[in-house]
Amino acid sequence: MPSSHKILLVDDNLLVLEMMSKALDREGFRCMKADSAGQAMELLHKDTPDIILSDYDMPEVNGFVFRQQLMDNPDFRNIPFMFLTSMNNTDLMLEGINMEAIDYIIKDVPIPVIVSKITNVLNTIREQHQRSISELSLAAVALHLDSVPQQLPKVKGFKVDFWHRPFQGYPGGDFIDFIKIDERYTFIVLGDVMGKKWGAWFFSFGFLSYVRAAVRLCLYEGDLSTKSILQKINTVVYHDPVVSEVLSTLTLILVDSENSQVSYSGAGDLPLLYYNHQEGKTSHIQSAGLLLGLREEGDYDEYILKMNNDDQLFAITDGMTDFEAAGRKRSDYFSFEQGIARFLGKPDTFTAIKTSDFLAQKSREQIDDCSLIFLQKAD
Predict the structure, then answer these.
(1) According to the model, what pLDDT value does residue 2 have?
(2) Cα(185)–Cα(157) distance, rounded to whole angstroms?
(3) How far is CA 202 from CA 189, 198, 287, 368, 372, in A?
């Protein structure tokens, strides 16, 4: 059993709690222990287990009430749940199953049986997860629904590439687009809808539609200012009663091949990382704009950067900087910058980054969708 699988054990009997925890630890599980439903809820607000095993007969809040509390909370209702009991009572078992508990485990059965039950449950969930991804991916392809592009644009005088990893393999809230206007102008779009998995993925198409429509409108009006386009997107989002409730960041970059420059405006996004090849130095380009839909006026600005040969620019979503420590989500932009520093200015910078141990570790430890866009001025 992989050590990454975490079990929340809930039992008011401290001896049973300690003995079962040690036995499961030896089998490769990581156990979170709570001697009451209240303590279990405190732990759940700090960390999310793969499965919960809870005693039924507990003082103050029994296992059924605890299960109902979990079902009433959208953050916890989908965590697999099994009852742990010393009573072989058919009526109680049926009541628990009716509360969407996966199964019962009798405390005095041998530990190998308990391990086998838990393993089978987690394997079944993993298989369902993989099947869901496969089915939805096929549906998305059939409907031409892509929140990330299937191929890279050819931009004269520039190298463009990206790296994207959705959280837990599910399509999520990060979206990427390349909008090629002509041989001179290409827009690079990077957004992050608040939330994870299918809900955020669904809304990402709404935001992408608004971005594409605003670009077309500004092109028709002869105004390719990233600031103007971002404000148009924000205005529409702000007045949309559905999409306005789902906030999103947005990075909008216009590449001008003829003048070897980029224009950039951002809505609540992370700073761009710019590498000046001639000076061998990095700097941050930070937008002051607000999240899309937060206010009718987003207070967006526009930054224009002249790029010389081998200068490099990186745009990221917060999944690249977020990590979990002591059960809490934390963010560290500096760690991202340090992680790619040794590759900057190299002939094959992005290839090296994509195959680096830094991104391999990020993939293993990610707690959100991760997206990274790379732009380099080339001959």
Answers:
(1) 42
(2) 11
(3) 17, 6, 27, 16, 21
Q: In whole angstroms, what is the distance from residue 194 CA to residue 368 CA?
A: 10
| pLDDT at site 55 | 85
Q: How far is residue 162 from each of residues 152, 154, 179, measured CA to CA in Å? A: 8, 13, 14
pLDDT above 60 for 3: no
How do residues 70-80 score in pLDDT, each as one tens digit? 888 877 888 88
Alpha carbon distance 75, 302 (integer Å): 38
In contact, 36 and 12? CB cutoff 8 Å: yes
In this structure, are strands 6-10 and 51-55 parallel, antiparallel, or unpaired? parallel
Question: Is 0.70 topped by the overall pTM?
Answer: no
Mean pLDDT of 331-348: 89
Question: Which superfamily is assigned to 6-140 in CATH?
Answer: Response regulator (3.40.50.2300)
Helices 357-365 and 333-341 pack at an angle, to 10 degrees, of 150
CATH number for the domain formed by residue range(s) 147-377 = 3.60.40.10
Q: Where are the domains of the chain?
A: 6-140, 147-377
Strand partners, 292: 248
Cα dihedral value 155, 161, 167, 169, nearest 10 = 90
The upper half-sphere exposure of residue 158, i.e. CA atoms within 13 Å in the direction of its Cβ, equals: 30
CB atoms within 10 A of CB 318: 21
SS3 call for 146: coil
Residue 375 near residue 179 (C-beta atoms within 8 A):
no
Residues recorded for the chain: 379
CA distance to 203, 306, 361, per residue, from 208 (Å): 9, 27, 30
